[in-house]
Amino acid sequence: MEHRQLGRSGLRVSRLALGTMTWGLDVDADTAADQLTTFHDAGGTLVDTADVYGPAEEILGDLLSGHIPRDELVIATKAAARRAPGPIGGGASRAALLAALHTSLRRLRTDHIDLWQLHAWDPGVPLDETLAALDTAVTSGKVRYVGVCNYSGWQLATAATHQTAHPTRTPLITTQVEYSLLERGIEREVVPAATHHHIGLLPWAPLGRGVLTGKYRNSTPPDSRGASDHLASYVEHHRTERAARIVQAVLTAADGLGTSPVHVALAWLRDRPQVTAPIVGARTTAQLATALDSDNLTLPPAIRAALDDISTPERSYPERGPTD
Fold this sequence. Notes:
alpha/beta, TIM Barrel, 11 helices
């Protein structure tokens, strides 16, 4: 697998990342071990998890303790996903973030995290307090690089500018956002902000929450994520008439190229401006292997242009400009 620079940093990662959101839920520990081995054997290095992904951090920590050498993987995790009761209160306060970091290190059985990400913007905490906690984590040696997730364009630009305003602060190198042929809204403001600040994009749900595979066109397979109680609404979000037209275009392109819709959707996204590594989650090892094979596909310009055209998001003032 090819590797890319992660934002404006000295860190290089595989151009596909392994997601662990369903480890311990729809993916048992044995299958997780198989997936990590398959990913590592394919040249994959970037593994993404979070402190709120159920037992995912603990499963990954068990695997790091003897299954795969720790120094051959880039471990990314997150904190600040939700508010909670109590004096610390969860969210992105200094106390909550540093407590979450301690817990993640313990679960992952490691002395450092390669990429630590703020899972969400927290309007209840001053931004300088939140970002100062990231600086503390890096200067302590417990974190190597930092990023954010699910930030809007103005939020990303504000945080990035704050971190570059003084040489002692740690710059943001990534933003993790939903991005696929079905969800291109970030191209209005987030992508321009990331480009301006040299921040790499880590797209989640690169297959449109599974819809771009084509398996949900007519019904919901009983063994799919969409049939799972905790993920049914997650999939339904992208089962629309517009999505159906895009899925059909992906299937047509895949048929013409003699490949799978998974390969087409991932290859399209992987080579979008500012994208570093789409994060691929899979229910089975076979599904993951199929996704990893997309690294060998480069879309012909005509097919890329056709997919761009059918999935182009609606743009208006001020994104288009006053005279467009």
